[in-house]
Amino acid sequence: MAETLSPPLPGHHVPPPQPEQLSFHVPGEHHPKNGTLLGFWVYLMSDCLIFACLFATYGVLGRNYAAGPSGADLFDLPLVAVNTALLLLSSITYGFAMLEMRRNRVGATQGWLAITGLLGLGFLSLEIYEFAHLIHIGAGPQRSAFLSSFFTLVGTHGLHVTFGIVWLVTLMLQVRRHGLIPENRRRLMCLSMFWHFLDLIWVGVFTFVYLMGVLP
């Protein structure tokens, strides 16, 4: 004990402390379990705030037509219903992919993910067609406050779907290369939450924007 507490002799070299001797060093895992999923839930909540602001904006401006066309004049409900069915069906196929992932079936998981991506592309194609048609007939976002808020809300959701498809393709490449390792399973879980979240938002858009928009 005396040797430990005694000061070093003059000229004697004292070796630097090792990392395990430092008081701030904590051995073991530094990241909490399921920390990624928790962080992704926080992100989804922030996305909820964004869409809440867009819905509120549309609620305020949705009847300001500036002597232009209204939703009843512009919206094609059968087309929007088909688009809605595509997105909701993609949520079901993604659920099948998650079931196959739990069974550790790489091929079946990839197949259902591919079907989900194709349904998402179909949804985006119809949405782009709708936007192009509205702009072609002179009902672009600059025509009125109603159309500005409409294009912003629906377009923001479309951008999210686009990002989801890019993420889906990236994960399919990762699964093909590395298989259903724990990291890929966690990423597929995060994308599952994101995809179902987009479906939930679209149900709100379909009800609040399209169905209520055709009312006199």
Q: What would you say this structure looks like, in words?
A:
- With 216 residues, the chain is mainly α.
- It has seven helices and no strands.
- α2 packs antiparallel against α6, α4 packs antiparallel against α5 (106-136) and α5 runs antiparallel to α6 (145-178).
- The longest helix has 34 residues, at 145-178.
Secondary structure elements and pairings:
Layout: H1 2-5, H2 35-61, H3 71-74, H4 77-102, H5 106-136, H6 145-178, H7 182-213
Helix pairs in contact: 2-6, 2-7, 4-5, 4-7, 5-6, 6-7
Summary keywords:
single chain; 216 residues
Number of strands: 0
* Distance from first to last alpha carbon: 90 Å
**Main sheet properties:** none
- The Rg value, from CA coordinates, equals 26 Å
**Which sequence of SSEs, written as H and E, runs from N to C?**
HHHHHHH
Quick synopsis:
This protein is mainly α and 216 residues long. The chain has helices at residues 2-5, 35-61, 71-74, 77-102, 106-136, 145-178, 182-213.
